[in-house]
Amino acid sequence: MLRALFLGLSEANWAKSLIMKIGPARRSALRFVAGDTLEDAIKAARRLNKNGLEVTLDHLGESVTDEASARKAAQAYHDMIGAIAESGVRATVSLKLTQLGLDIREDLCLEQMRAILNQAQATGNHVTIDMESTEHTDATLKVFRTLHDDYEYDNVGTVIQAYLYRSEADMQALASEGAFVRLCKGAYKEPPDLAFPDKADVDANFVKLTELFLAPEAQQAGAYLGIATHDENMIDAAKRYIQANNVPPAHFEFQMLYGIRGKLQEQLRDEGYKVRIYVGYGTEWYPFFMRRLAERPANLWFILSNFFRR
What we know:
eight-stranded parallel barrel, globular, 14 helices, 2 domains, alpha/beta, TIM Barrel
C-alpha cells in the first residue's frame, strides 16, 4: 500500500506543489540528493571516489514540455560533462530522454543526445539513458538503438526494468547486441497486465535477467551489466552466478543509490567488486524522492524524524 501511495504521489502535481514548499521535506530529500548545484554533485562524487566508489551523476528532471526547457536541460549536461573532466572525478552521466524533449519531438531529443555523446566521447565519458514509465519504453529503446547502432556511439547505455513482462525479450536482444544495460527492479506505477504485481515474481525475474546478461554468449557479444539493486538477496544471487561461472569483472558492476545502504556499498567494495553510486542533484528532486520512498518504505521513518528535528 505504501509503495502504491508514493508512486501515485510522484505523479501528482498538487502534491509536488505542496511538498516542495515544506522545509523538512527538502531536508529529508537531501539524504538521497547531493544538493541543488553541480558544485554540490562534484563534491559528493569526490567524497565517494575517495571512498573507493565509482559515480554516475544525474541532473534531476523529466517530462519537459517545451523546447526552451529541453535545451536548458541539455546545457546542464554539457556543463556537467565539462565539470567532470575539469575536476578529475570518476563519474559517468545518467539522464532521462523526456528531460531532453522526447515528448516534444524525437529529432530534438536525438539532436541533443548526439551533442551530449560527442562531448562525452571527447572527454572519455559514458552516458546511460534512464528508463521511464512504459509509455516511453519503446521510444527510449528506439533512441538508444539509433544512437548505438545507426550512429555507432559506443559510449551510450540504457536501462531495463525487471518488473515488466517484456523485459526478458528486451534483455535477450540487447545482450546479443553487446549493449551496456543497467538492470533495476522498476520504480513506476504500472498496471498488472504490463508488470509483475508480486515482489516475489519481480525478484525471480531480476535474477533470471541478471544471469541471462552475464551468460557466456552475452560476454562474447561484449555486453556489460550494471546490477542496480539494494536487495541483498538479488546481490547474493548475482555473486553466486558470477563466482560459479567465473564472469570477468570487465562485464559487470554493482550500482546503488546515493544515501542508501552505505555499509553494503562498502562491503561490496571491500570484496573487490566495482560499485557505482547514482548521485542525483538539482532542484527538481520531488519525483525522484517519492520513487525512493516507494522502493523502500522503511525510509519513511527517516523522513518522519526530520519533521520533529529543530
